[in-house]
Amino acid sequence: MRCGLLGEKLGHSYSPAIHGQLGDYSYEFFEKKPEELADFLTKGDFAGLNVTIPYKKAVLPYCAELTPQAEALGAVNTIIRRSDGSLLGHNTDYSGFKTMLQHSGLKVAGKRALVLGSGGASNTAVAVLKAAGAQVIVISRQGEDNYENLHLHADAAVIVNATPVGMYPDTDAIPVDIGQFSKLEGVLDLIYNPARTRLIQAAAKQGLVAENGLLMLVAQAKEASEWFTGAAIADDKVTTIYKQMKQQMENIVLIGMPGSGKSTVGKLLAEQTGKAFADADELIPELAGKSIQQIFAEDGEEVFRQWETKALTALGKKTGMVIATGGGCVMRAENEAILRQNGRIFCLERQLESLDTQGRPLSQTSGVAQLYRIRKPLYAQFADYTIDNNGAPEDTVAEILQHWEEIL
């Protein structure tokens, strides 16, 4: 059975990995331009499709029949080719978003909820929220309720991002400033790559509920798989796959003073987790075309920091990595969001007299104690956990993995 995901740009999708655990069928990407859509839907070789941005509404005319769910939502995210060759359009996003809302723990009955965007995903969120008793306002660029008059809805308790703003690869974008909502309780972002959009990070910093769209993706995929195969799948399969996906895709990020053992510990972590290892200090010379020592000598620290941020930007967008950073990455506040978007951050602590300063320009010129005094509060700000690395690297790895399991 040949199934897959239909969309315009699909390089960011986790769907093949999820469907690989749900059923015995092939699942592949069908990247199609708008002008290719009609020919593919009428003549394409497939038994079942999931549909994503920007085609959830565009596929409607090609479906001979819609299920009540798809008809009510005015959007299709699942297509089945029936025995006569005609297409049946269904929508599993409703159950997916309902699962996401329930998992968040947010109580929306009687409260105002803002849904950003007016596409197919927006319709789904609106339907679920209304069914849960929320007063729903749709915010669009040109509608009566838009981004210019958000102040009229400052009492919103929940914000749902149903737009692609903040999605990979444009991960530095944020759809709204949540600081203007004084009664906000939580943010639900349907984006799942990156794991923590700028919107999610902003909500988390304020101590609010902050959920990404990964659980929704898995839950809707489970229902889609049932439609593809006609076989029921146990609900607990959703939880199992969700946890596995989080574990596989999240980065482990190591920060700490120069010489604190980030590369050594990082390589051991990569071996034990099966994740790829990357050292930001090795990427910088590739990008800059000169060594770190040359950058400092010829261009100065500020230029080096610019190259460092470029390296971290490239690495931070990746998933399933162990990333060792340079000791001074915390000197730029913007690097925190870059690293946190897909990663959990662990700071390695080592006694100053044990730090290796060889080949480290600032450690040699400024002195380790002076650098540590400046950077210590910044390490604390960046880190999810601080790990003692004065013993054997294997013990450090074991402690990190223990926290890793608790996080996930």
At a glance:
The chain is of the alpha/beta class and 408 residues long. It has 16 helices and 16 strands.
Description:
The structure is a single chain. This protein has 408 residues and is α/β, with parallel strands linked by helices. It has helices spanning 15-19, 37-43, 68-73, 93-104, 120-131, 198-205, 214-229, 236-249, 262-273, 280-288, 292-298, 301-316, 334-340, 361-366, 368-382, 393-407, and strands at 2-7, 26-31, 48-51, 65-66, 78-81, 87-90, 112-116, 135-139, 158-161, 186-189, 209-211, 251-256, 276-279, 321-324, 343-349, 385-388. It folds into three domains: 2-89 and 217-235, Rossmann fold (3-Layer(aba) Sandwich); 94-212, 3-Layer(aba) Sandwich (Rossmann fold), CATH 3.40.50; 250-407, P-loop containing nucleotide triphosphate hydrolases (Rossmann fold, 3-Layer(aba) Sandwich), CATH 3.40.50. It has a six-stranded mixed sheet. The longest helix has 16 residues, at 214-229. 44% of the residues are buried.
CATH topology of the largest domain: Rossmann fold
Let me know the average pLDDT. 94
Number of domains: 3
Ends distance: 33 Å
Strand order in the largest sheet: 2-1-3-5-6-4
The helical percent reads: 40-55%
Please count the beta strands (DSSP E, at least 2 residues each): 16
